[in-house]
DNA sequence: TTCATTATTTGCCAAATGGCAAAAGTTTTT
DNA sequence: AAAAACTTTTGCCATTTGGCAAATAATGAA
């Protein structure tokens, strides 16, 4: 299969957060590498220090971990036009406690630590843009998680359907159930009731 | 009562995220204003554009909102040595959807938008420090909220006791219950069972 | 101190969710 | 196509949590 990626999504996304001239855009494109993941593949794994940041061109990733009971918990899903990385581990260069896994086949644009350093050193607006993106992504996560605690399972599922209308049927029930904080069988029953 | 605030906590906190010389420290101290809040007072309110950022010297704030059912939900608590602000509304200068309220009597150090702009323009490291602080605070919120979804109410309550050991008995049960995502009576029963 | 107000606990019962294991359904491999 | 592996649904019952209202308890005001 031929891979054809214009990186338009990436560039347009970055331009939402700051201005870039053509020379800078070209540099960014040169620093980005296309990475195709198959459903189930891991982009990064717990225990390892993340060395790359991914921009999702196409597909869905999920971030997950194992809790103290040994259950696998999906912390959140990340869909296209977003960056994915365990930001804490990446910045501090400490082993991650999370897995980042492809829920569907994905086309990613990845930046290595070195590339990001180069971009930061070369493009004066880079850090500002990245900071805005980071902040926005984190605020969104908080604002999505927070109300979930106050809702019952059915409402959480319905909210998920709104947010990812075409995803629910393409991902294993178990991923979704752990994200919603319920058991797989409960989710199955909730689904049936709708 | 005499108010005596050295601002040491604030300065030490900032120094965790970057270096500052004495001149810069003095400027920061001049820009900060001491604000005392009584238990129950609001630092900022939904519907208004937040004009200040608070550093908590002493005390606890909570961020809360009303959900679609009209229930008042505590989104999170913020304790001393942390900044509190509805960052999204503050940055974008749009009306907040949240209240920030004093759970206990508080001593805050507040910075106005103008002061922050001055600091940003004068202290070259300022933006970097603030970005690190912001990012860390948001990552912590996500990491605290996320596992709560996967835990049952009792575990969530016990976790809260660990995190805020001396707070649980000083705040209305209703605040805590809504934070934990359970009803007041359930929390009362859980408490009893321990 | 007493009254009024507010916060918390409790009883009762209904509804939601969990735990476990078996059955049914899908997908993948051989 | 058949077998194996995996996913989802279902039954059964226990446990948790919610909803509501009344009873207590605690707090604050007069």
Structure description:
- Two copies of one chain form a homodimer.
- Chain A is α+β, with helices and mostly antiparallel strands and 194 residues long.
- Chain A has two domains: 8-144, Jelly Rolls (Sandwich), CATH 2.60.120; 151-194.
- Helices cover 45% and strands 21% of the residues of chain A.
- The first copy, chain A, has helices at 8-15, 22-31, 87-92, 113-122, 126-150, 153-163, 173-180, 184-192, and strands spanning 33-37, 42-44, 52-58, 61-66, 72-78, 83-84, 99-102, 106-112.
- In chain A, β4 (61-66) and β5 (72-78) form a beta hairpin.
- The first copy, chain A, is elongated, with a radius of gyration of 18 Å.
- The N and C termini of chain A lie far apart (39 Å).
- The mean pLDDT of chain A is 93.
- The A-B interface holds A 67, 71, 73, 75-76, 87-88, 91, 131, 134-135, 138-139, 141-142, 145-150, 178-181 and B 67, 71, 73, 75-76, 87-88, 91, 131, 134-135, 138-139, 141-142, 145-150, 178-181.
- Chain A binds a DNA duplex (30 and 30 nucleotides) through residues 152-154, 172-174, 182-189, 191-192.
């Amino acid at each position: 299969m031929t891979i054809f990626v214009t990186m338009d999504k990436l560039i347009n996304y970055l331009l939402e957060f700051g201005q870039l001239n053509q020379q800078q855009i070209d540099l960014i494109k040169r620093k980005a590498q296309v990475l195709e993941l198959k459903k189930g593949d891991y982009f990064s794994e717990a225990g390892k220090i993340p060395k790359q940041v991914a921009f999702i061109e196409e597909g869905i990733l999920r971030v997950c971990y194992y809790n103290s009971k040994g259950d696998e918990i999906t912390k959140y899903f990340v869909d296209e036009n977003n960056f994915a990385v365990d930001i804490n581990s990446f910045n501090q260069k400490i082993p991650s406690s999370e897995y980042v896994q492809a829920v569907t086949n994905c086309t990613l644009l990845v930046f290595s630590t070195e590339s990001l350093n180069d971009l930061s050193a070369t493009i004066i607006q880079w850090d500002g843009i990245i900071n805005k993106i980071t902040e926005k992504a984190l605020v969104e996560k908080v604002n999505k998680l927070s109300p979930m605690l106050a809702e019952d399972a059915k409402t959480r599922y319905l909210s998920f359907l709104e947010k990812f209308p075409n995803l629910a049927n393409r991902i294993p029930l178990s991923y979704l159930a752990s994200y919603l904080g319920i058991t797989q069988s409960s989710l199955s029953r909730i689904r049936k009731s709708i």
